[in-house]
């Protein structure tokens, strides 16, 4: 690695992080992955086995200390490590604040001590809450649940380290990322995992509400190129929204997959539409999404067998899994009638 620029990728065995590793190796970087494998999967990096430009280290980011040698000589740090999902964050807020906020602070301190060239933070569009669309970077912040709050506070720490310590940083605010290697197990959540398992089982898709709600789906390789652009630019201290800028409805996803549907109740705290205004990143960094939704979904379908052991959700099990969601985010909790 000595003659190559070095990049550190936290959460590098995860969904987006592993694609970031792919891109960095392709672009001539030496890569050091930090991942405790609680949410990632070592198999995501298996195709790089034996590559001398990649080293992988099983570490919980909460145990990192300034002076950690993995950050020495690093040109960039890409910080993806953290925990997601709405319902678990409602049930375990301490874990989310500990990992997503305090863990981020530890990464920042390691980056600061090593005098890295740029740290790029993976922010979440959930910080905007029930946002006006298209959503710009200066939209008011309104987290609806602890996960969203924790990701926003992590981002605030990133910008604070830039302001106080001069650490060069940028933040990339991801809307609805999808693509190969997306998680196949765990809590009820990501629509692709739910639908793919139902398709394999010949069961109807559990569509929330009437299915007209839309999401700004952005393919994972486009996410990776956005992060690299945010690292390699001379611009610092900025948040960049990334999406495809072309929301697609859940009904459209169903039409691409093919099959019957059954409807489950619409959930509080979820927007009818997510829609990233990507003017800032396209004009300042020259980044543009390249993979259309109609291309990305078939790419995932080629690997649908990976979901054969994923949880099979139906209306009853979804009702049980989202009980906490309705309890804390429903009308009684928000004061709405």
Automatic annotation (TrEMBL):
> What sequence ranges are listed for the domain NAD-dependent epimerase/dehydratase?
8-243
Give the pathway annotation: Bacterial outer membrane biogenesis; LPS O-antigen biosynthesis
What InterPro entries does the record tag this protein with?
Answer: Epimerase_deHydtase, NAD(P)-bd_dom_sf
What family classification does the UniProt entry report for this protein?
Answer: Belongs to the NAD(P)-dependent epimerase/dehydratase family.
Q: What is this protein called?
A: NAD dependent epimerase/dehydratase
Native source species: Labrys miyagiensis
